[in-house]
Amino acid sequence: MATMSTIARLASERRIGFKMDEVMSGEHEFQPGHGPGERRPMSFRVTWGPTNLFKWLNPWGDEFLTQPLDGTVTVDGLCVDAPCSGTLALRYFTERKIRYDFRFSNAGRSFRFVGEKVNIWPWNLHVSHTTCYGELVDETSGELVSRSITFFRFRTAPAFIASLRLA
Question: Which domains does the chain possess?
Answer without folding.
Answer: 17-166 (2.40.128.120)
